[in-house]
Structure formats: structure tokens, C-alpha cells
Specification:
- This protein has 390 residues and is mostly helical.
- It has one domain.
- Helix content is 64%, strand content 3%.
- The chain has 15 helices and 3 strands.
- It has a 3-stranded antiparallel β-sheet.
Length: 390
């Protein structure tokens, strides 16, 4: 019987298949040959997609609840957080981290001609979902209390965001938003979080002021035609690509904007290339796949028997949905330009793999739900004493 977890994985395979085609098409350059099956089969994008699918299938076999039965100092989730934050710091070190488009937030990994760029903040983004879910589940009786329940969780989120915001405001904001959703779902009082909104807004304003290019992006969003050949060039070209796609598009591989007109066409603005080549029909298909992901993910959330599983599934769904929404809003110039990728579509092998792993974890939760139904288990919340047993 086809379960929600199976549907989730099928949607991921569909998105990755589309990603291989779309990224390969967007990566075409004049004089480099046409759009053919041989070049696709020999591309690194296909290899990354295959690895992502394998990783997703392996992750779907993981029993996440084992992480709830070990002491905090041996918890793999907390150690993953430490490792990811260290990597974020390392990526900002000159001479070690890679600077791309004015931001230093990548590390080069691999050897022997198989090097690829890795963005540690991508790993941190997913690890934070696990950390917050773990905290809310182990401290569920304390979550309504500000100092004993909410404040320590905010310390986790704040530490991650303060490090990441130095080079990546978009990912830091995404972590903060998803973290807030999980905290409220985990038992924190909404009015406690609302009290912190002014301080959070002040921090965002400070982060924008610290980087002049962020102010420029904001002004460009408000008046893109004031500097059509400068700062307004990218959003204008993105809108042009969408308009030229029409209803059915120019045809896969036949887009024009990717030939030097649209910057970051394989990554942040890949959706514009998809719109130009496949039209409104292709854009609707992409949005439909993301809606299917979110809808199926929410059905898994509903069926989870324990708080930890529910919050992990909710965090994965919220991260995917909000990130896709932000990217599409940027490409369609609904919000200011921000360097945040379209999940499972924008070029980035490690990004595909880490995201597929997270979705595999959501599928594993669905499998656990199914086993619970077969065993006739009832919903049980573990006490703090039971959770601390090794």
C-alpha cells in the first residue's frame, strides 16, 4: 500500500529529475553543444541526484527516537549542532572559506576532480530542526515557562543565527522563523515570543545596515528601473524571462536569458529559467510538486504518536515550504533579492543531498507511524526521567 512516506519520496525523485534537466539546460553556454541525453547522463548533476536519492532511502531507515533515549552529552543531535556551527565559523575564515558573490559561506570539499562547494549553514538549518524538537520533547512540561523552557531554546536559535547572519541573512531568518513555529507547536506561549519581536526586528535592521549591499537590494526592490543596467539588472531580467515564457514556454533547452543575461541562472534564479522554457504550465507543475510535499508532510505530522516525531516532521515541512516560497517570491520580484536556493531544484549537489536526507527522516517517521498502527500502540509522552536513561 502506498503510504505518505512513499509519496513524499516519489515527489522528491520527481523534483530531482526536473532539477537535473533544468540545471543542465540553464548551464548551457554558446558553443558548448546542445541539449542531449548523452551530456545529461554524463553530467555531475545526475550523479548528485542519484546520491541524493540513495541518501534519502537510507535516511528513511533511521529510527530517530533512539536519539531520545541517550543522555544529553552523548546525544548525536547536539554533537551535530556543534560540528555544523564550527563549520560555519571555518567557512568564514579567509583562505579557507570560499567567497562567492561577496559572501564567504562555502567550503570546498572533495578531491581528484570531484570537488564541490558545501555550505555549512545548510547543514545547520536542518540540525536546528532536530535540536528544537528534542528540547521541546524532553522539556515539554517546562515549555510554557519563559526562563526554564523557552529561553534555553532561544539560546540555541540565537547562537546559530548570530553566526550565520554575518554572511547569510536569508538562512538565518529562515532558521528563526521555523524555530519560532516549532517552539509554539512545542508548548511555548505565543505571547512570550511576541514580546521578543521588537528586539528581533532591531537585530534584522542592524544586520541589514552592517552590509551595504543589503540596503542596495532593498532600494533596488523598491525602484528596480532606477538602475536598470546596474543593481536592478537581475530582477528585471528575471521578470523578462518569466514574461517571455508565456503559457507553454520556449521549450526545454531553448531559453535565451541563460545566455549571459540572467545572473545565477542555475542556482537562485533557476525558477525564472523554468518559467521561460516551460511557461506557466511548467511553473504550475513545480509549485504543485511543492504543495504535494507540504500536504503529504503535514499528513505525516498528524499521524505521529509522540511530540518529538511531530515536531521533527513539522520542522522539515515548514523549512521546505517556507524556503520554496521565499525563493519563488524573490524570482517573481515580490520580495527583495536574497540568496536562498529553491530546495531540490537549484544547483548544489550537497544541498540536494542534505535536503533529501531530511526528507528521508520524515519518511522514516511515517514508517514508524505505520508500525505503531500495526502494533496497536497508543500515544505516549516519555517522562524526563525515562528520556535520560541510557
Amino acid at each position: 500500500m502506498l503510504r505518505a512516506g512513499h509519496i513524499l519520496q516519489l515527489v522528491v525523485i520527481a523534483l530531482l529529475s526536473l532539477a537535473v534537466l533544468a540545471v543542465h539546460s540553464a548551464d548551457m553556454r554558446i558553443g558548448q553543444g546542445g541539449f542531449d541525453i548523452q551530456s545529461i547522463l554524463g553530467s555531475r548533476h545526475l550523479l548528485h541526484a542519484v546520491v541524493a536519492v540513495i541518501v534519502m532511502l537510507l535516511a528513511s531507515r533511521i529510527n530517530l527516537r533512539h536519539a531520545m533515549k541517550v543522555r544529553w552529552y552523548a546525544n548525536p543531535i547536539l554533537w551535530l549542532l556543534v560540528v555544523s556551527l564550527v563549520l560555519v565559523v571555518v567557512a568564514m575564515v579567509p583562505g579557507i572559506g570560499l567567497e562567492i558573490n561577496g559572501a564567504r559561506r562555502w567550503l570546498r570539499i572533495g578531491a581528484g576532480g570531484y570537488e564541490t562547494n558545501f555550505q555549512p549553514s545548510e547543514l545547520t538549518k536542518w540540525v536546528m530542526v532536530l535540536v528544537i524538537a528534542w528540547w521541546c520533547a524532553t522539556q515539554h512540561d517546562k515549555m510554557p515557562r519563559f526562563f526554564k523552557g523557552l529561553l534555553p531554546a532561544l539560546a540555541f536559535i540565537g547562537a546559530a543565527c548570530l553566526l550565520i547572519v554575518l554572511e547569510d541573512l536569508g538562512t538565518a531568518a529562515l532558521i528563526a522563523v521555523v524555530g519560532s513555529i516549532l517552539l509554539v507547536a512545542g508548548g511555548a506561549r505565543l505571547w512570550h515570543l511576541l514580546m521578543l519581536v521588537p528586539a528581533a526586528a532591531a537585530m534584522v535592521v542592524t544586520a541589514v545596515i552592517m552590509k551595504p549591499h543589503r540596503i542596495e537590494r532593498l532600494m533596488t526592490f523598491l525602484h528596480p528601473w532606477d538602475d536598470a543596467r546596474g543593481s536592478g539588472y537581475q530582477p528585471i531580467q528575471s521578470m523578462l524571462a518569466i514574461v517571455e515564457g508565456g503559457l507553454t514556454g520556449r521549450g526545454l533547452g531553448n531559453g535565451i536569458q541563460k545566455f549571459g543575461y540572467l545572473p545565477t541562472d542555475t542556482s537562485d534564479f533557476l525558477f525564472a529559467v523554468i518559467c521561460e522554457e516551460t511557461g506557466i504550465a511548467g511553473a504550475a507543475m513545480v509549485i504543485g510538486l511543492y504543495l504535494a510535499l507540504v500536504w503529504t508532510g503535514l499528513s505525516i505530522v498528524k499521524d505521529c504518536r509522540d511530540k518529538f516525531s511531530r515536531l521533527v516532521a513539522l520542522g522539515i515541512v515548514a523549512t521546505l515550504g517556507i524556503q520554496a516560497l521565499i525563493n519563488i517570491a524573490v524570482v517573481t520580484v515580490v520580495v527583495p533579492t536574497k540568496g536562498i536556493a529553491l530546495p531540490l531544484l537549484s544547483a548544489g549537489g550537497t544541498g540536494w543531498i542534505v535536503t533529501a536526507f531530511a526528507i528521508g527522516l520524515a519518511a522514516s517517521l511515517d514508517a514508524a507511524n505505520h508500525m505503531n498502527e500495526l502494533d496497536g500502540e497508543v500515544e505516549v509522552e516519555l517522562s524526563p526521567g525515562e528520556l535520560q536513561q541510557a
